[in-house]
């Protein structure tokens, strides 16, 4: 159109003047055709540039409109997806809320039932507690227990070997001081869990009474008014604890009395040079399947022996054992030679840590609880005051009697001068 305007300008000068008058009346139009031609050319050039700029702007606007439309479609899609997800989540949450409400109602009902059951059980527990308290009072009043003898040192000494109740409680504190050893064996009444039928004092009294008097489990169950299985459990747990705790006590011996003792022999066992002293015989019954017919002129004595030993190390300490490694158990028959009973494989003997071939330095705690034995013969006599060692036992009690021999020897060291309790 600009070209047409230009052509028309040159073809009809009067028209140009008319246009100039109409559109540019206020402008000064040069009379020189060359200058006018130049102005028209520049005007055409500016007009062309503006047209190109307008076209570019239109294209950019169209691109922006397309981009905006695309983004709007994308936004609509994302909005639809989000709305769908939110709808699903809302549905899921509503379903969970319904389930939680149902579960809450169920739990509330269960809680209510448990509260009712607890309320009913409280009366039962109260009744049983009163019964237990009544039984304890009855046991204290008419049964055999520590409360009934603790004020009379004569009976404390008779049943336990200790001079007085205070020494016995000190010994109980010593036994229970090692919580690792006590774990799984004895339970204090202050601990959480099933309560023991007897107090710790009565449990220890039960065990010491059996060692002192050699009573049967049935007798002890009747005396303490508990079941025979309970007595058996106390006996096994406490003898295990007594054996483990007492063997921690260093016992020093006198070399002079050791030289005077007979019979003895020196051996090397597990690398330790030690002197084995034969102290006493422990008697056991031969099983029925192993019994032999005795001679017609002799009574039947189907017994066999296990030897109780004292073991002295070269660095001045002594311990005790009745394990077979130091001698074969023998069957005793009148008028017949002794027959060896091999039995099963005996477990190895574990010596206390302070028994070595060289001198050792005791810890402060070991020095405080160490004891000294002088006459070994006197010690054996005192150990045999525990009548449990004088009875005859079935073969399945070998391990129990072995522990009892060790316990009684250590108790003899603790209970008599110069090895008394401080």
UniProtKB/TrEMBL annotation:
It comes from the Eukaryota. InterPro entries: Transposase_HTH_dom. It holds the Pfam family HTH_Tnp_4. Residues 197-247 form the Transposase Helix-turn-helix domain. Keywords: Coiled coil. PANTHER family: THAP DOMAIN PROTEIN, TRANSPOSASE HELIX-TURN-HELIX DOMAIN-CONTAINING PROTEIN. This is Transposase Helix-turn-helix domain-containing protein. Residues 83-124 form a coiled coil. It comes from Pyxicephalus adspersus (African bullfrog). The lineage of its organism: Eukaryota, Metazoa, Chordata, Craniata, Vertebrata.
């Amino acid at each position: 159109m600009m070209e047409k305007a230009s052509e028309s300008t040159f073809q009809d000068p009067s028209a140009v003047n008319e246009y100039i008058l109409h559109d540019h009346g206020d402008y000064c139009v040069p009379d020189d055709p060359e200058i006018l031609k130049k102005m028209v050319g520049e005007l055409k050039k500016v007009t062309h540039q503006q047209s190109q700029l307008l076209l570019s702007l239109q294209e950019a606007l169209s691109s922006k409109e397309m981009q905006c439309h695309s983004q709007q479609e994308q936004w609509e899609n994302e909005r639809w997806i989000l709305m769908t997800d939110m709808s699903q989540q809302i549905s899921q949450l509503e379903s969970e809320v319904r389930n939680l409400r149902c579960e809450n109602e169920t739990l509330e009902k269960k809680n209510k039932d448990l509260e009712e059951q607890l309320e009913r059980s409280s009366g039962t527990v109260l009744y049983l507690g009163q019964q237990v308290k009544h039984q304890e009072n009855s046991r204290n009043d008419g049964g055999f227990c520590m409360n009934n003898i603790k004020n009379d040192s004569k009976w404390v000494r008779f049943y336990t070997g200790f001079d007085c109740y205070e020494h016995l409680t000190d010994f109980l504190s010593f036994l229970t001081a090692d919580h690792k050893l006590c774990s799984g064996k004895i339970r204090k009444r202050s601990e959480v869990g099933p309560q023991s039928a007897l107090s710790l004092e009565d449990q220890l009294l039960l065990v010491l009474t059996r060692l002192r008097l050699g009573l049967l489990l049935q007798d002890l169950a009747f005396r303490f008014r508990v079941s025979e299985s309970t007595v058996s459990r106390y006996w096994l747990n406490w003898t295990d604890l007594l054996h483990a705790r007492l063997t921690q006590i260093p016992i020093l011996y006198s070399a002079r009395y050791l030289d005077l003792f007979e019979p003895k022999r020196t051996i090397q066992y597990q690398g330790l040079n030690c002197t084995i002293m034969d102290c006493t015989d422990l008697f056991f019954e031969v099983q029925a399947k192993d019994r032999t017919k005795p001679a017609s002129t002799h009574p039947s004595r189907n017994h066999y022996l296990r030897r109780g030993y004292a073991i002295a190390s070269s660095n001045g300490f002594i311990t005790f054992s009745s394990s077979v490694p130091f001698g074969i158990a023998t069957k005793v028959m009148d008028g017949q030679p002794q027959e060896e009973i091999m039995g099963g494989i005996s477990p190895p003997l574990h010596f206390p840590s302070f028994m070595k071939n060289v001198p050792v330095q005791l810890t402060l705690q070991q020095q405080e609880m160490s004891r000294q034995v002088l006459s070994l013969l006197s010690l054996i006599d005192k150990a045999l005051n525990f009548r449990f060692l004088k009875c005859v036992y079935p073969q399945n009690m070998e391990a129990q009697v072995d522990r009892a021999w060790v316990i009684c020897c250590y108790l003899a060291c603790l209970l008599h001068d110069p090895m008394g309790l401080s």
